[in-house]
């Protein structure tokens, strides 16, 4: 298994920090891509931050009320080693399927 | 398990006499790590090869271990990556550059064909090019354009280049170490769709690393393949066995030079052959293989050599990939055509 850290992204308008309002996931949760992770408040607005990827949450940073700077770790995911890189997907090793059957009389001369 | 058995097994593992189970990714990473550790002249570089560890994790952890001067990132310019390899080789280094994807090799064709392939010849042997160019190759991972191409015929056509493609983790580990030890430039085509499948790697004994390898013996017909198509041909061989057809699978491994003797030995026995590759049909390596077989086995062949290949179109988008890459049914149909053939 590999760990992937998700740092607090730039939430727009050049804001440099955000305050955690409420966590919507806990360590140990399996999350899907785009699933809301956390409610944050900036000096402009409150918002729900979606997950950038699927994976198991193993650490969260910042208790409700604490402030996190952009670029600091927010969530650490655990993902299987056999996930694809930046491009493409890991092919499934499905059981082979066939429609064609061979029929031949072999003349073994 | 008794304590003494455990101790024996551990000792065997330490001595490297027991196979380790690795993915091709891990096997290649391990091979690079060992090459870097034993040959101080080796340098590894390419797009995202350093800090990130490669988009396929093949160079993962190598920069941290061997330093930024030996494992490093390059700009997004393949002509620069290969041009720099020429200069490094001239200066006595053993470069192992990476072109991140097959289709990214095109911008570096001038450096590969006009410099790397012929510098040794041009300099009367005074400027050898001990370069191992790693190219994640072939399709099968639902990637966009330029990420699923099969360039083996292009490279094999260039005098001065050697071309090899492993089909499993064991061969990947040993063939990469072997290629890196050669004085000539080697194009090392890694079947990217097989990166994640695990296999036993006998690190202490690579076996024969030159030429082709019979991966499944059979009596009635030889399937010739390389790279990712070897695994598919093994599946086909199992299915053919259900129908009473005993198929031999020959992994060509080296695509330049091609092991003509192994082709002659296998097809001389089975008297029937089908070549399978992902690359387009026309002027693909299948034609070369078919000719070599015809040359050695013309008198005993039961049927013309069949080719089951990709189509003469640009590599399609991921959604159409399964229609393009030879699938099980298309290979079985190729076998059927050979079995049905009658002279006259």
The radius of gyration computed from the alpha-carbon positions of chain B, rounded to a whole number of angstroms, is 21 Å
Largest sheet of chain B, in brief, is: 5 strands, mixed
Number of domains of chain A: 1
Percent of residues in helices of chain A comes to under 10%
Number of helices of chain B: 13
Distance between the termini of chain B: 65 Å
CATH architecture term of the largest domain in chain B? 3-Layer(aba) Sandwich
Please identify the top-level CATH class of chain A.
Answer: Mainly Beta
Largest interface: A-B, 21 and 34 residues
Under CATH, the topology of the largest domain in chain B can be stated as Rossmann fold
Mean of residue pLDDT values of chain A: 86
* Topology order of chain A in helix (H) and strand (E) letters: EEEEEEEE
Mean pLDDT metric of chain B: 94
Radius of gyration of chain A: 23 Å
Number of domains of chain B: 2
- Number of distinct beta strands of chain B: 14
Largest sheet of chain A: 4 strands, antiparallel
Binned, the helix content of chain B reads: 25-40%
GO molecular function, one term (chain A): dihydrolipoyllysine-residue acetyltransferase activity
Pfam families (chain A): Biotin_lipoyl (PF00364)
Protein name (chain A): Pyruvate dehydrogenase E2 component (Dihydrolipoamide acetyltransferase)
GO cellular component, one term (chain A): cytoplasm
